[in-house]
């Protein structure tokens, strides 16, 4: 009831002031009323009205220290830092023990980038103020700007010790723990905080995040459960719980939690994609396809969504459709080597060998040096009759792994194909020595060469 009366008085004060401006009548306001009026306009971004109110205020209360401090805020807001500094000097001469002088001076220092001086001013303010929580919070921010994360963490903890309700400080202290990779310490801190404030949904949510980071997904779900029990509208907790349940392979429960987030807020492409992935894992391809399509409808530039559609279409052997989706992903991120490799493999499946070769080449240009992919590239060039190029790719591949039997057998076949029997023999003998059983590669991939007397004789002589 008391707060309602204060709010009513505040509104009446604003109404009286604005009425005075319209009628040009000069009404009297006490200094606190003027202070509230000026700060209201400043917070609303109405600089002209704030300045007008300040001018009238100082005319009626020329010796008010609080109004002069509000003037400092106005000068800082306008980035008139030197003028703010001079005014603070004047105020400090009259009232040296005013904590707000040192807090405002810290703000000026911070704006100038002098964060160490800002810290010094705030430490001075700590010895004078009764509002310890706010000053510790400001100190924490300055320490963050100085990359003094440990000191920042201590300041935010001190802030919470003086004001357990300061949610910004709670987020900030956890940020510091995260930055320092002190996840177990964060869990200890949050557990202690929850002992004092068991109904803090934010603390439970942050506790779940720490357990998730440490891959303790069962405990993460437990913590997120409490967060959602305290606040059944806590979208972030449902989302994180869904992610944790995915890690525990509880895909149906994960879907349930993701769906709740869709009911609480507008759908996001990320959540729609996660639901699709869960449905795909449990082999419900129609539902997976539906959510993937919803994801790319929500965000047409979601390349991961188009890729998911590509992969599920491949699983359903709908290769032409898969290629359409893959083109979408590549058009969004043409510098992703993994997309070009899928492009190569998919086109090879569709017997589009020229396009497959293009995919392998693009992937290689983007730095892909996985030997299996270079082997696939060489196989494609072989089909295209580009034997010399295929040999070149295999020689490059063998530089990654000089004893890879798959490469050695292919080199043997290709050299024999172009009638370079000496080189063919060398690589065939190396391959047989490396892995005799893998000679079946020739029978599987190069059946027309399997009965070649030269190859058969080399294999027999090796025995």
What does this structure look like?
The chain is mostly helical and 463 residues long. The protein is built from 28 helices and no strands. The longest helix has 22 residues, at 2-23. It is elongated, with a radius of gyration of 35 Å. The mean pLDDT is 89.
Short synopsis of the structure:
The chain is mostly helical and 463 residues long.
Main attributes of the structure:
TPR-like_helical_dom_sf, TPR repeat, mainly alpha, Tetratricopeptide repeat protein, single chain, 463 residues, TPR_rpt, 28 helices, Serine Threonine Protein Phosphatase 5, Tetratricopeptide repeat
Shape: elongated
CATH topology description of the domain at 181-265: Serine Threonine Protein Phosphatase 5, Tetratricopeptide repeat
**Helix content estimate:** over 70%
| Fourth-tier CATH superfamily name of the domain at 181-265 | Tetratricopeptide repeat domain
Q: Tell me how many strands there are.
A: 0
The level 1 CATH classification of the domain at 181-265 is Mainly Alpha
| Gyration radius over CA | 35 Å
Give the distance, in angstroms, between the N- and C-terminal Cα atoms.
Answer: 99 Å
């Amino acid at each position: 009831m008391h707060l309602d009366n204060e709010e009513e008085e505040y509104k009446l004060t604003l109404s009286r002031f604005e009425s005075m401006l319209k009628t040009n009548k000069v009404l009297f306001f006490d200094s606190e009323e003027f202070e509230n009026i000026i700060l209201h306009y400043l917070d609303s971004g109405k600089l002209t009205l704030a300045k007008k109110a300040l001018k009238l205020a100082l005319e009626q209360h020329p010796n008010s220290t609080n109004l002069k401090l509000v003037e400092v805020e106005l000068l800082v807001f306008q980035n008139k830092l030197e003028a703010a500094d001079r005014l603070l000097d004047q105020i400090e001469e009259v009232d040296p023990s005013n904590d707000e002088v040192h807090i405002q001076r810290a703000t000026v220092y911070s704006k100038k980038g002098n964060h160490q001086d800002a810290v010094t001013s705030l430490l001075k303010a700590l010895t004078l103020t009764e509002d310890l929580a706010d000053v510790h919070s400001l100190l924490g921010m300055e320490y963050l700007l100085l990359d003094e994360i440990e000191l920042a963490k201590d300041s935010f903890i001190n802030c919470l010790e003086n004001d357990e309700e300061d949610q910004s400080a709670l987020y900030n202290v956890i940020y510091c723990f995260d930055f320092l990779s002190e996840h177990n310490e964060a869990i200890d801190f949050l557990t202690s905080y929850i002992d004092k404030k068991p109904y803090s949904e934010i603390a439970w949510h942050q506790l779940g995040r720490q357990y998730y980071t440490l891959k303790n997904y069962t405990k993460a779900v437990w913590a997120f459960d409490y967060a959602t029990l305290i606040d059944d509208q806590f979208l972030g907790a449902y989302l994180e719980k869904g992610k944790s349940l995915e890690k525990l392979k509880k895909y149906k429960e994960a879907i349930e939690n993701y769906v709740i987030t869709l009911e609480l807020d507008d759908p996001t492409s990320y959540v729609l994609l996660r639901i699709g992935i869960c449905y795909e894992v449990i082999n419900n391809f129609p539902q997976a396809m539906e959510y993937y399509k919803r994801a790319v409808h929500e965000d047409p530039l979601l390349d991961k969504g188009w890729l998911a559609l590509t992969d599920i279409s491949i699983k359903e052997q709908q290769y032409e459709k898969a290629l359409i989706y893959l083109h979408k992903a590549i058009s969004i991120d043409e510098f992703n080597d993994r997309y070009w490799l899928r492009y190569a493999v998919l086109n090879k499946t569709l017997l589009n060998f020229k396009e497959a070769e293009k995919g392998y080449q693009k992937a290689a240009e983007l730095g892909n040096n996985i030997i299996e992919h270079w082997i696939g590239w060489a196989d494609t060039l072989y089909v295209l009759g580009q034997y010399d190029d295929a040999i070149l790719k295999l020689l490059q591949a063998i530089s990654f792994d000089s004893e890879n039997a798959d490469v050695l057998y292919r080199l043997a076949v290709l050299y024999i194909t172009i009638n370079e029997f000496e080189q063919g023999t060398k690589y065939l003998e190396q391959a047989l020595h490396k892995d005799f059983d893998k000679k079946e590669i020739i029978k599987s991939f190069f059946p027309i060469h399997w009965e070649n007397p030269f190859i058969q004789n080399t294999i027999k002589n090796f025995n």
